[in-house]
Write a structure and sequence with these properties.
The chain is of the alpha/beta class. The chain has 15 helices and 14 strands. Helices cover about 40% and strands about 20% of the residues. It has an eight-stranded mixed β-sheet, with helices on both faces. A hairpin with a 2-residue loop joins strand 10 and strand 11 (about 220-225). Helix 1 (about 60-75) crosses helix 3 and helix 11 (about 290-315) crosses helix 13 (about 335-340). The longest helix is centred in the C-terminal third of the chain and has 25 residues, at about 290-315. The structure holds adenosine-5'-diphosphate (ADP). Adenosine-5'-diphosphate binds near residues 207, 236 and 331.
Length: about 400
């Protein structure tokens, strides 16, 4: 049978991340990243067949970025004409209340994604740009959008609803939409497969952005991100949970504008705000060498995580599995140990040696731990490719 692949695109405001994926085998035939789009020098990296090419040529806009990707594939491979591309799969952060699964793109869908920009101001504009340029440059393949919110579309009302005036909430579509859904779906499905039965599980996606989800029998019942990806865990540069009255206070007392507070909460807080560094590796190294500021930042980070684990065990009425994923979750054993420390009362027992090992999927709990704890590398691109392929049929 000839190969069938999906070109997965993740468009950011000044970046384009891509992967050509075989959804059946999970193989990535090409991966790459165009960064610094619109700046005087660009940053481009393309990997195919174990070989990587790079360039720092200026890339004026997203159209030029995708054209560069296509041209590079022609030069160094893979040959796109022979790659059997059945779809282009686009990651979109905010699908609002409209999208609960992967969707074929047409003008109406595009208009809805644009309409949702006020709910995803930091992400949806870039997705629209990515969709427009990709549909123009690759007009003969179906384009599919996979929403970061879709996995959480079916959250129970009690978890999705803010205790806000009903009329205001409805009029302005203020509810908890969640994010990182593609990762939570991929990882939780892996756990269900590995355990071979329906389970009550918590997935901790700890990357630059970070989120937790509670999943019962394959359905998300709660998640830590809310109206936007700002709510919940401590992140690289985001506050996570904070009393909204901090906004009123900063506006009234510090005279800050809404835009300034938005930037403060989204870009200058989290680990960066607490320890001056959004990269967990740096914060961990400093904490290990006795820096009290870095240690205090980690304490806040771990405290918040534990709070969510306890809360989710309570709302699920039990717990079978906890899974760590994404950059920090997959690589930082010390952090995993700190999060699990003291959770023996829930049935969590970590095996120190297993927790020290690299790679995954791997079980890091002891064999007699009532709660199975895993490290599972996330693969959002593969999940997007699978969903797009399933939709195309
Ligand atoms: P993004 O949300 O940008 O996709 P990632 O999932 O790549 O983020 O995670 C980035 C985070 O993972 C950073 O804080 C980085 O320090 C952390 N990280 C990556 N590798 C390691 C490592 N070996 N040890 C500890 N932390 C790591």
């Amino acid at each position: 049978m000839s190969r069938r692949t999906v070109l997965v695109l993740n468009t950011g405001s000044s970046s384009l991340k891509y992967q050509l994926v075989d959804p059946a085998t999970g193989e990535a035939l090409a991966t790459g990243l165009v960064e610094r789009i619109g700046e005087p020098t660009g940053a481009f990296k393309h990997t195919h067949d174990g070989e990587t090419v790079t360039s720092d040529d200026a890339v004026p806009d997203h159209g030029a970025a995708l054209a560069k990707v296509i041209a590079t594939c022609a030069e160094v491979g893979p040959n796109l004409a022979e790659a059997g591309i059945i779809a282009v799969g686009h990651r979109v952060v905010q699908g609002g209340k409209y999208f609960d699964s992967a969707t074929l793109v047409d003008e109406a869908v595009l208009a809805k994604i644009e309409e949702l920009i006020p709910l995803g101001p930091l992400h949806n504009p870039a997705a629209v740009t990515g969709l427009n340029v990709a549909r123009e440059l690759l007009p003969d393949v179906p384009h599919v959008v996979v929403f970061d919110t879709a996995f959480f579309q079916g959250l129970p009302d009690a978890a999705a609803t803010y205790a806000l005036d009903r009329e205001v909430a409805e009029k302005y579509e203020i509810r908890r939409y969640g994010a990182h859904g593609t990762s939570h779906q991929y990882v939780s499905e892996q756990v269900t497969q590995m355990m071979g039965r329906d389970v009550k599980q918590i997935v901790l996606h700890l990357g630059n952005g970070a989120s937790a989800s509670a999943v019962v029998n394959g359905h998300a019942v709660d998640t830590s991100m809310g109206l936007t990806p700002l709510e919940g865990l401590v992140m690289g540069t985001r506050t996570g949970d904070i009393d909204p009255a901090a906004v009123f206070h900063l506006a009234r007392v510090a005279g800050m504008s809404v835009e300034e507070i938005d930037t403060l909460f989204n870009k200058k807080s989290g680990l960066k705000g607490l320890a001056g560094d959004n990269d967990m590796r740096g914060v961990r190294e400093r904490a290990d060498s006795g820096d009290p500021v870095a240690r205090a930042a980690l304490d806040v980070y771990v405290h918040r995580l534990k709070k969510y684990v306890g809360a989710y065990a309570a709302i699920m009425g039990g717990l079978d599995a906890i899974t760590f994923t994404a950059g920090i979750g997959e690589n930082n054993g010390a952090l995993r140990a700190e999060v699990c420390e003291g959770l023996e009362f829930l049935g969590v027992r970590i095996d120190a040696e297993r927790n020290d090992s690299r790679g995954g999927p791997i079980q890091i709990s002891t064999d007699d731990s009532a709660v199975t704890v895993y490290v599972i590398p996330t693969n959002e691109e593969l999940e997007i490719a699978r969903q797009a392929a399933a939709l195309i049929g």
